[in-house]
Write a structure and sequence with these properties.
It is built from two helices and two strands, in the order ααββ. The chain is an alpha+beta fold. A two-stranded antiparallel sheet has the order 1-2. The chain is extended and about 40 Å long.
Length: about 80
């Protein structure tokens, strides 16, 4: 997916991550075919915001492929 043209002002952010966290981001970048780690973080932020908006007391219910429901606490 090509990156959209930059129309908004940007600010640089430096992150101090553990090796494990960096590897998780890299795996997500590969799985989602994202162009960059920044894109992975942007997408994750969008999902996190959507889940928080739809949660009840920061708890979301997810229906798994076997039809069971799993509750996840967003902290």
């Amino acid at each position: 997916m090509p990156r959209p043209k930059r129309t908004k002002e940007r600010r640089r952010l430096n992150l101090d991550l553990t090796e494990q966290t960096r590897e998780r981001l890299d795996r997500l970048r590969i799985q989602t075919e994202a162009d960059s780690l920044t894109e992975v973080i942007r997408r994750a932020l969008t999902v996190y915001e959507a889940l928080l908006e739809r949660s009840e007391n920061h708890i979301v219910s997810i229906r798994l492929p076997d039809k069971t429901i799993e509750k996840i606490l967003l902290t």
